[in-house]
Amino acid sequence: MTTRIIAKDMKRRLLLVSNSTLHGGGYLEHCQQQIKDFFGKGVARILFIPYALCDRDGYAKTARDKFNSLGYEVDSIHEASDPVEAVRKAEGIFIGGGNTFRLLKCLYDNNVLSEINKRVLQDGVPYMGSSAGTNVSTVSINTTNDMPIVYPPSFNAIGLVPFNINPHFLDTDPNSRHMGETREQRIIQYHEEPDTTSVLGLREGSMLLVEGNKATLLGTCKARLFTRGKPTTEFESGSDLSFLLTDRQ
Amino acid sequence: MTTRIIAKDMKRRLLLVSNSTLHGGGYLEHCQQQIKDFFGKGVARILFIPYALCDRDGYAKTARDKFNSLGYEVDSIHEASDPVEAVRKAEGIFIGGGNTFRLLKCLYDNNVLSEINKRVLQDGVPYMGSSAGTNVSTVSINTTNDMPIVYPPSFNAIGLVPFNINPHFLDTDPNSRHMGETREQRIIQYHEEPDTTSVLGLREGSMLLVEGNKATLLGTCKARLFTRGKPTTEFESGSDLSFLLTDRQ
């Protein structure tokens, strides 16, 4: 993990989406304009990483159909004979949602984690993540909502930003009779542990655009920031969140 | 892990509770009659394990107050100079809820996991778990609902029963607009993986009593059983679930 880059003034370009599908809409429909703006006309082919779901063929078809409709060709990494080489040649990367533990384990198993880090931070290859794909782009998967169905060799993730994200962030329902921890309580428990980072709670419909050292909140709703030892803060869509990139938060 | 016992005809006595607090009630109030029936008059002192919460002193006080009111003395393992020795001397064990990852890591860090297994399965020391304390009594924590705030050395748990439990089991809300996976979808994802066990979804208010090779569902609601490759099944309170104990399910 020590070989990964946490440099400043990097070329990174990231589109980190909270959720793949918004209630009542189609797959990636709610963020399709942002996807086109993000990959633009400079990228012709996108490398899709379907590791978070069991049915990789079906998942690749779903992603391919959507991206084709937006004008992009899709190569799925599970169809490549050499996954590391596929990352080395990628013009753009998209990691889709599903189970974050399965996804991270599979990134390690295929030795592509460091390579993705390098391609995005050194070479400026644009990276889009959705849900679990957003989780693994951060420091660690310590703030995923997913069930730990497999045991990855570490919770450390690709590290494209120096903080963590909680996708599908869910506000506490004051009428709930369920006594499991609320999402907010879970994130507060994370901050009880030493050496933990800030956590950006991205509600469904929101996403974070990162260009170099600039971060902007996009989408239809506010995001909630949890920083250890400080009050939680709400940010409107359009907010400049670049301060999250300056140091490990 | 290989030293742990998966023997039959064992003395084990377990009370595995879904949740510590039921909506509108006090701590362990909804299961206090079952606790008294379970520990009975043969046990005077109970060893409490507060590792799932950060504030161990506060947690021990909560547990002590409750168990004192039921006629039991409480020793908290975090107050013992030698945690392994505390398990060796325990007449009864209670592991409380909180974060399952923190709890399991701490059981490993203090080398008490195998010792608890031995005391319960070989020596017949009664074991009560609630929520996270129920999760860690099973084969693994693969079906916890908790956030992975720390990285335990394994997801393998104490192994007092040959299946997994999902505490705080929550039915799918047909009116929800949230697009994160439902609990049922998460457990189905677990069963997509190889070498996975049956999962008993214990709704809040329900609990499982295990006496030797007999398992009985107690409490106020039904439980839902997920077995790989089979339809899910509902069981009424009072059901005999001993078949879950015969083999690794």
From TrEMBL, chains A, B:
Q: Which GO terms describe its biological process?
A: proteolysis
Keywords assigned = Hydrolase, Protease, Serine protease
Give the originating organism: Salmo salar (Atlantic salmon)
Matches recorded under InterPro entries: Class_I_gatase-like (IPR029062), Peptidase_S51 (IPR005320)
The UniProt similarity line reads: Belongs to the peptidase S51 family.
* Molecular-function GO term, any one: serine-type peptidase activity
- Which domain of life does the protein's organism represent? Eukaryota
Q: What is the lineage of its organism?
A: Eukaryota, Metazoa, Chordata, Craniata, Vertebrata
Q: Which gene encodes it?
A: si:dkey-69o16.5
Q: Does the keyword Zinc apply?
A: no
Question: PANTHER family, alphabetically?
Answer: ALPHA-ASPARTYL DIPEPTIDASE, PROTEASE S51 ALPHA-ASPARTYL DIPEPTIDASE
CDD domains xrefs? GAT1_Peptidase_E
Instruction: Report whether Hydrolase shows up as a keyword of the record.
Output: yes
Q: Which GO terms describe its cellular component?
A: cytoplasm
UniProt name for this protein? Alpha-aspartyl dipeptidase-like isoform X1
